[in-house]
Design brief:
The structure holds 2 protein chains of 2 kinds.
Chain A (H helix, E strand, L loop, with lengths): L3 H22 L5 H19 L13 E9 L3 H11 L3 E8 L4 E7 L6 E7 L4 H9 L2 E9 L2 H10 L4 E8 L2 E6 L9 E6 L10 H5 L3 E4 L2 E4 L16 H7 L1
Parallel strand pairs in A: 1-4, 5-8
Antiparallel strand pairs in A: 1-5, 2-3, 3-4, 6-7, 7-8, 9-10
Helix pairs in contact in A: 1-2
Chain B lengths: L5 H4 L3 H22 L1 H7 L12 H7 L5 H8 L14 E6 L10 E5 H6 L2 H9 L7 E4 L8 H12 L2 E4 L5 H10 L4 E4 L1 H13 L4 H4 L5 E4 L6 H11 L2 E8 L4 E5 L6 E3 L5 E3 L1 E4 L4 E6 L11 E8 L10 E10 L12 E3 L4 E2 L4 E3 L2 E3 L1 H8 L4 E10 L5 E9 L11 H13 L4 E5 L14 E4 L11
Parallel strand pairs in B: 3-4, 3-5, 5-6, 6-7, 19-22, 20-21
Antiparallel strand pairs in B: 1-2, 7-8, 8-11, 9-10, 11-15, 12-13, 13-14, 14-15, 14-16, 17-18, 19-20
Classes of the chains: A alpha+beta, B alpha/beta.
Chain lengths: 243, 456
């Protein structure tokens, strides 16, 4: 019998692999898509039976790094770097009117955390960050199974929690003041994992066909007709997702 | 000791309770955030899920939900909940609807179906069955959850299902031997019928069916003496599982020690059910909502801990059970404990041939002019089949010719409304014994109720 901690860590690895599979499948409604769904269901059950509330979280009730936010001036160029050259899989993205940005989220093989690319499209705090610093690391987002318990622990350690927002049940968040984190903006979130957005592409995000609503990317305009199948041997969904 | 899951069974009580506490708090928050039912229900309360931290917080602050609440919510949905627009739904499970109040509809998604059989696997594996063993299933497959559920329990435990819901009792008896079954899953009443059939056929399964390890009972209470005799005749451990559509499978079940044991003087005694606490949090409560003490009986209230297309949070089951202290079984597992054999209804519902039957529903059919009163009896016939007879009385002065065909019409009406066949006889009003309470109109004389020491 394997050690429970090792089983949980291996389960979290497997969960990330399944998420990648499902991201590549996109909105496949055929046998592969349903198989991916069933594998995820079984893996979720396996995780529960080895004592994990969240299959993506081997640490149990603690926090886990969900994504790193990076501010960029040219989103397409950044997509080439983080997607095509570094092998990321596009899993989410869209415009956010309130923040005045457009974003792309990439996941990576073997990594639990994602990269979020943020491009300002209107004046706002992200635009000011870009002007002041020229881009780069903007924030770290940690997920907590229990935000209240996580914030209790952080404030108990002397950190200052600011901007607690619990208005949206599906996305409750707070920030740690950078004064206490040696300059890094840290966001702590209690929310459901973001499922890969079916059919999302860099081009469609840049055409503003996707928007963040209720903390989920939603397609706001109809997808264009399917382009001719690529001649490449790579799976079409994967090629499309990386563009 | 058979082990179904070394991680869960290897936890100590504090670890298991910690897991249940975190999972229960998360279940409430998830339901409040994402479930249309609970958003609707909690909107009428001042519940603040973000303030919950412990099981005690959940007990004190989260309101309980009833079948009536769920049905009220369903009526607000398109098609009464039967036409869900959610494309992630993969199955629809309905409750039986024999209460007359309506049928609850439970949408199931891929996560639900992946976990559907897992709790039942604990019951089988703890009883000593192993992957590859054959298990005879006698539960019908329909739009209720039972059929899909029992299939999945076999898949989760690696067992080979021998589907026997079609065919006669003689066919099933033959197949038990033919397939060398290691287990059979049935209601106590059906096991009794099978026992009589085996005896009549000259079978001696304790010696001539050595493959049989366990008999898995569910669906109705049974006496310790009957269970003891049944175990001896079949040469198998009599086991029990309790669950419901709301709990997405078994929520408590016996271990290798079975559902009945014997005192030093040989008197049979009901044994212990283990809560599958890591999947379903079970509360046993007094009518005022306070928890009962170990040794006391109260209503079962369940919270499904796994994410589900239809979360279940503090759902009042209207079933009652006797709570036992943790560790009562003596097997060493860290779970909560309950008395086997005695789970019954808080209300006056009866289980007849696997159907939930409420006297109110029969009252509604029978107590119409010119019928002024009736008495009912559930009993085991000479072949062990559950049978129901009903005696009715007409108002004084009712012309006999006007009611000549009424018994047969009422028989059809009961079958249509409640789903069971009854034999109906007529007596004079004065011959009907007086009863103060309507539930006393019914007597249960089934053989499986034979008692020993009827406690845990």
């Amino acid at each position: 019998m394997a050690d429970a901690g090792e089983l949980r860590a291996a389960t979290a690895d497997a969960w990330r692999a399944v998420e990648r599979i499902r991201a590549h499948l996109g909105d496949d409604r055929g046998v592969l898509g349903v198989l991916g769904e069933r594998i995820a269901g079984l893996l979720g059950e396996f995780a529960w039976e080895v004592g994990m509330l969240d299959p993506a979280d081997p640490g149990g009730p603690g926090t886990r790094l969900d994504h790193v936010g990076i501010v960029v001036r040219d989103l397409r160029a950044a997509a080439t770097l983080y997607g095509d050259l570094l092998g990321g899989t596009l899993v989410a993205g869209g415009g956010h009117a309130g923040m005045g940005i457009r974003s792309l989220h990439y996941s990576y093989a073997g990594a639990g955390a994602k990269v979020e690319l943020l491009q300002p499209v209107r004046p706002g705090p992200v635009a000011r960050f870009l002007e002041a610093r020229g881009g780069g690391l903007h924030h770290l987002t940690f997920f907590a199974a229990d935000l209240t318990a996580a914030l209790d622990g952080l404030t108990g350690a002397g950190l200052t929690v600011v901007d607690v927002d619990r208005r949206a049940p599906e996305w409750q968040e707070a920030y740690l003041s950078p004064r206490g984190t040696q300059g890094c903006l840290i966001q702590v979130v209690q929310g459901a994992d973001l499922a890969p957005a079916a059919g999302i592409t860099v081009d469609s995000v840049l055409r503003d066909e996707w928007e963040w609503r209720d903390h989920r990317p939603r397609r706001v305009t109809a997808a264009p007709p399917n382009p001719p199948a690529p001649a490449a041997t790579e799976a079409p969904a994967a090629t499309e997702a990386r563009r | 000791m058979p082990v179904a899951n070394p991680v869960v069974e290897g936890m100590d009580e504090a670890e298991l309770l910690g897991f249940v506490s975190r999972a229960a708090v998360a279940a409430v928050r998830r339901a409040a955030a994402t479930s249309p039912l609970y958003r609707w229900f909690y909107a009428r309360t001042d519940l603040r899920p973000e303030r919950l931290r412990t099981l005690d917080d959940v007990r004190r602050h989260v309101p309980m939900v009833t079948k009536r609440d769920l049905l009220d919510f369903q009526r607000t949905l398109p098609g009464g909940g039967a036409t869900p627009a959610d494309p992630s739904v993969r199955q629809l499970h309905l409750t039986s609807g024999t209460s007359g109040a309506g049928r609850e509809i439970y949408p199931r998604d891929a996560r639900d179906l992946a976990g559907l059989g897992i709790p039942g696997a604990y019951e089988y594996l703890w009883a000593g069955l192993a992957p590859g063993d054959r298990l005879m299933l006698t539960i019908p497959y329909s739009q209720t959850m039972a059929g899909p559920y029992f299939q999945e329990t076999c898949a989760a435990a690696g067992l080979v299902p021998v589907n026997a819901f079609a065919g006669s009792t003689a066919d099933r008896l033959r197949d038990l031997y033919r397939f060398a079954c290691a287990g059979i899953s049935a209601t106590p009443s059906y096991v009794h019928r099978l026992t009589l059939e085996a005896r009549a056929a000259g079978r001696r399964p304790a010696t001539d069916l050595p493959s049989l390890k366990a008999i898995f009972l569910s669906g109705e209470p049974y006496g310790a003496a009957w269970a003891h005799d049944t175990a001896a005749f079949w040469g198998a451990t009599v086991c029990e599982g309790w669950g419901a559509t709301q709990t997405l499978g078994v929520a408590m079940c016996t271990c290798e020690r079975g559902a009945v044991t014997a005192d030093g003087d040989g008197t049979p005694r009901h044994a212990v059910l283990h809560g599958l606490d890591h999947r379903c949090w079970i509360e046993v409560l007094n009518p005022d909502g306070s928890p009962v003490a170990p040794g006391e009986t109260g209503e079962i209230v369940v919270t499904l801990l796994r994410p589900s297309a239809q979360p279940v949070v503090r759902f009042r089951m209207a079933d009652k059970v006797r709570l036992l202290a943790r560790g009562s079984c003596g097997c060493g597992r860290p779970t909560s404990c309950y008395a086997a054999g005695t789970i019954g209804r808080v209300d006056d519902m009866m289980k007849i041939r696997g159907m939930n039957v409420w006297p109110d529903a029969i009252d509604a059919v029978l107590l119409r002019s010119p019928v002024v009163d009736y008495r009912g009896r559930v009993y085991s016939d000479e072949r062990g089949r559950e049978a129901v007879d009903v005696t009715i009385a007409f108002a004084a002065g009712t012309p006999p010719e006007s009611v000549a065909d009424l018994p047969s019409r009422l028989r059809q009406a009961v079958k249509q409304a409640v789903g069971i066949s009854v034999d109906i006889a007529v007596v004079e009003p004065g011959q009907m014994p007086e009863e103060q309470f309507k539930s006393r109109r019914w007597r249960d004389e089934r053989a499986v109720r034979a008692v020993g020491v009827a406690d845990g």
